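U., I forgot to send this yesterday:
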Amino acid sequence: MSGIAVVDASALAALVFFEPNASVARDRLANRQLVAPRLLAYELMNAALKKLRKHPDPSALIRSGVSKALSDDFTIFWSDVEPDEVLELATQSRLTAYDAAYLWLARHLDAELVTFDTALEAAARNLELRT
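Result:
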């Protein structure tokens, strides 16, 4: 499938940190124009930090995954979101503002949301968004 996909931290982390569902993430993101709110970079770095604290041995692999994901080699188009609308969506969906930002962007772009976050995926389905 081609087109635009909004990618969240759970899906990107699965791919770059070689998590068990990495192949699913790779398949869902292949040949797509990836778009994300700017907070994705910070969420991915936070995921890396948690991994480094829990498993310091593969430090180079974890750091390499973050660098690759946030470099020009892995093209993600960064998008701003409308804060008032994200806050309203978070309130309505009972998501965090972070997750609501991905949801808002997918709805705004009429794009598929690629996530492994079950609460975010459920909220997207409630809004009849593609996941």
